[in-house]
Protein: NADPH-dependent FMN reductase
Organism: Methylobacterium nodulans
Amino acid sequence: MALVVPVILGSVRHERNGARAARYVVKALEARGHEAPLVDPAALALPLLDRMYKEYPAGEAPEVLESLAATYRRADAFVIVSAEYNHSIPPALSNTLDHFLEEYFWRPSGIVCYSAGRYGGVRAAMQLRAMLGELGMPSIPSLLPIPEVHKALDPDGAPLQPWLDTSAGRFFDELTWYAEALRARRSHGTPY
């Protein structure tokens, strides 16, 4: 059954390689029949966090937040695409995620991390695991690290390395399993 899986890109940098990874993820999810809206903080021009979406009076949140909230409420899972900045996550990603809370609850997340080097952003993924759990969308056990992202994906997100589709296939199989399981449980209600 089709899932709704927003893909949250964590970088706003000029000529960012993360866009390659995000495009790859969106295409891979869509090829499986899922809806994968891209959440790009550069395109959305999200404000720096002053008030969370839930802190605005009903109907008074900026339109960009209202639109994201509607997308997130439909979501069955999330994929976070993150670089590594100073052994942690990019500030734009933290800002993007922190605007919401309840909209994430009881939905799994998958972490796709990348870097220009050989570690594939895994140090950021470790920081991100703690944050995602606190937000109510715990990450699945597997990661999809993409080292040397500029050599692994072309600018349109097409894979340049044969290992990537194999690793991604297992990753998306696992994410789908968790998303379907939690969707089934949400249909019977949640603890609160």
